[in-house]
Amino acid sequence: QVQLVESGGGLVQAGGSLRLSCAASGRGFSSYVMGWFRQAPGKEREFVAAVSWSGDNTNYGRFVQGRFTVSRDNAANMVFLQMNDLKPEDTAVYYCAASTWTTAWTRIDPYEYWGQGTQVTVSS
Fold this sequence. Notes:
- By secondary structure, the chain is an all-beta fold.
- It has strands at about 1-5, 10-15, 20-25, 35-40, 45-50, 60, 70-75, 80-85, 90-100, 110-115, 120-124.
- It is globular.
């Protein structure tokens, strides 16, 4: 079992940057695909980014358009989401999640473990 805790959210102006972190505890972290999702008020949770267990492969939601970078440090049991050029529409609660699936990274259901989320607010 894996426990996930996100941090790094906050209030930022449009065009600014934030770096989200996800600290994992428990066994087998390096064997999980790690994903980031977000959920804005009144909207469904959507896929943001994911990184393979090795860190060699990544996948991003279409809206990212080169602005975000996902990475991981298996030695430290950490996952990161660097977000640049933030827009007001990026405002949401951002969640870290862990999956043992090797496919379907963009779907919610393969992810077995979820953090509590961190709020990101982008002002115009």
